[in-house]
Amino acid sequence: MTFRTATGGSIDRSTSLRFTFNGTEYTGHPGDTLASALLANGVHEVGSSVKLGRPRGIVAAGSEDPTSLVQVEAPFSEPMLLATTVELYDGLVARGLAGQGKLASDPDPARYDAKHEHCDVLVVGAGPAGLMAALTAARSGARVVLVDEQNQAGGALLGVDEYLDERPAAEWVADVVAELKSTPDVLVLERTTAFGMYQDGFVLALQKRTDHLGFAAPASHARHRVWRIRTKQTVLATGAHERPVVFPDNDRPGIMLASSARTFLHRYGVLPGSRAVVFTTNDSAYCAAIDLAESGVDIALVVDARPEVPARLATECAARGIEVRAGQVVTGTEGAGRITAARLGDETISCDTLLVSGGWNPVVSLFSQARGKLRYDAELGAFVPGEELPTVRVAGSATGELDLNACARQGRDAAAAAGFASGGQVPVPVSDSRCTARSGLVLWRVPGSDDTSFVDLQRDATVADVLRATGAGLRSLEHVKRYTTIGTAHDQGKTSGMIAAGIVAEALGVELGEQKPTTFRPPYTSVSFAALAGRDRGELHDPVRVTAIHPWHVAHGALFEDVGQWKRPWYYPKPGEDLHTAVLRECKATRESVGLMDGSTLGKIDVQGEDAGKFLDMLYTNMMSTLKVGRIRYGVMCGVDGMVIDDGTVIRVGEERYLVTTTTGNAAKILDWMEEWLQTEWPHLDVHCTSVTEHWATIPLVGPRSRDVLAAVAPDLDVSNEAFEFMTWHDTEVAGVPARVCRISFSGELAYEINVTAWHGIAVWEALMAAGEQYGITPYGTETMHVLRAEKGYPIIGQETDATVTPQDLGMSWAVSKKKPDFIGKRSFARAENTRADRKQLVGLLPVDPSVLLPEGSQIVETDRLPEPPVRMLGHVTSSYPSAALGRTFALALVRSGHTRIGETLYVPVEDALVPVTVTESVLYDKEGTRRDG
């Protein structure tokens, strides 16, 4: 049996679409939703409830529906979608859910993206109020963005057959939309839901761009787009949701909100059933009863909980043979699946549809997210906006105004109040609507079986659950929400939240106005993680960054390690070599002759401005403003707690310009750290910071023969110790390429860091390799770099530190200025905690057996026998390597009172043994530093 009307609706009856639901094939039309197409085919039962397994149907016609959850299986599997919001397309395959779906096992082939938009006025909602607001602002010349979740504008007008200015409402809507779309600087976004409202006029909206196309969706188009809208003024014309009344067995398929039945009739040309009972507390349901009766539905009875029925409505019902009973309520229903009868006390009335209207809840979610206060409207039985916000206006039924003419007027006035009034007032259309909902009775529930009186149909939460919560002493609506889970499903309590609040107030014997409503949080409707990620997925989610010299490393057999997002050469194995063998070879070659590595990943931040030196003085523990142009200084950065967060060199390029280097993994963090202080604490400073990490290819040239190799490729540069001092830099040409050469060493050897533009990285690298061939020049990776620096006791931030280590703990008191009046972390150095004698301090460890390699992370204990737990740990091993230069293994460690334990024997548990180790100073190789100058 078909329940499609012969005419009417906004569907394309000339085209049929095939779809499959729960294994059965049906047909529908373009313009249908899956819900309307199912109802047209007489299908009311969609799925079952999550806990009790009770049948669930279609309650509403839009995103407020609490029950019609489906899983779309084709063209791509996606769970937890509402049948009322899934637009029908040919070949759609879906099935009903028992409250939970299943994620797809295959990767999502669709594309997602994001876009930024700036405007003067954002209007949310394209009903009468929203259209009037957008039209008024557009005619004033403002930049306007209008968003609406439906596939066409009109809002509540889409579900009625009313006239505006003596013509069908659809014609008025079409004219307004046409004018808006033809007006410059006006953007109309359909199928777009504003789901989050934040500070400073920032709004997030989700546009479903191709879902309605199904298999015909172009692969090149983004399926969903997140709009990041920044607006000066916002008009919220978000409408209102009809709410039900709770009564025993109110969850059967076939029980539907009255306005939704009217929407299915007028928008989709679908009858919700053949025989209906209408249960209402206000006037609005009468329009549904009258319209359905005129369309052929047998309206068995209108049950009005109010003691009296407005005479006009009673007369209209009588003219159509509809019986109306005042002062009565529906007390229950019958039916094995779909409803077959409604009960009024002892009386049973057969029906296949029960339409319910318990009043209206203004949609105040976004207003509340904007930090707007709500107040309880006792006449309406709902929370409404309770204050005016400087940049947010509310219009239409979202304010609690349910008269169509008044809603349209509010929309126009809201745009004018926002400062965007047109030269002449936009005329307000006149409606012929015969129904309003303002003069209603507030009724939350009908007494009866609390265990089967459902408040939240999706969560299977009943009146009994609410009373159990209040009986346990809970008074806050937030606490009751979490105890019962009401309002925590996909619909976020759009139909259940207000009813739960009312029942709680009744149970506690308090006024609802005294209760604080639950917090409305983003997102307003469900948003997929894929949409939020946008294009930031796969490699774009965590991009793989490679240096300009990366192809050379690949071609020469380097193995790589991930350092942050960078692929860095780990070591260069020759045939038959493992990690340790290759690293020992690389270390030996570098210490005895010359080696080079790709240091391009080193963080580089260009700091410019009149106050650049003053700014760096506050960031680093030592002085930077006194650094002369042409010189370089090592520096340590601490957090406000005095703990080391990064280290690196500062190069003074000019009087008002510095180049700051950071560790590879901390480059972005330190730039963010700089900007945080500049923008929040020191905005008066004239300083600009720019990341230039990828602008430069950096090549450390290291070893006793490094001077000879550099001289061969930089003939114009005097590389003698006298002309080129340690911690200075010179601009020159290297291999014919403009370069900045810095005399810096992270190995303790004579070393130079050669910086050229990234474009010339490989050319300069290959020139250095050719020039060093006679000296056996050896490329080395990060593992060798770690060994070389550890032999000299140089710490790596994040390896020798763990956010609990001060410069003093690292033996770097020399890097902390005693002259500067202040810098970040200075005051924390005086804290008792930071001056304790038993703090963990950086030391070296030499295993008594020189062949034993201590596992990094191993704990350190004081005795050669482990006592009963708990065992006191003195510290842990931070770095551990075999050393070609030392001819043995060694380690660095953080040990309690480590600086006073030099020469002591401690023990490291390794598997079942306690390995004895001797505590040494952290510098294990060339303690005098004589190798630095070659």
Structural class, judged by helices and strands? alpha+beta
Rg measurement, Å: 37 Å
| DSSP summary, beta strand count | 49
Number of helices: 19
Proportion of beta-strand residues: 25-35%
**Largest pleated sheet:** 7 strands, mixed
How far apart are the first and last residues' alpha carbons, in Å?
A: 96 Å
Instruction: Name the shape in a single word.
Output: elongated
Helix content: 10-25%
Unreliable runs:
none
Could you give a short description of this structure?
The protein is of the alpha+beta class. The chain contains 19 helices and 49 strands. Strands 8, 9, 12, 13, 14, 15 and 28 form a seven-stranded mixed beta sheet that branches. A six-stranded mixed beta sheet has the order 40-41-42-39-33-43. It has a six-stranded antiparallel beta sheet with strand order 45-46-47-44-49-48.
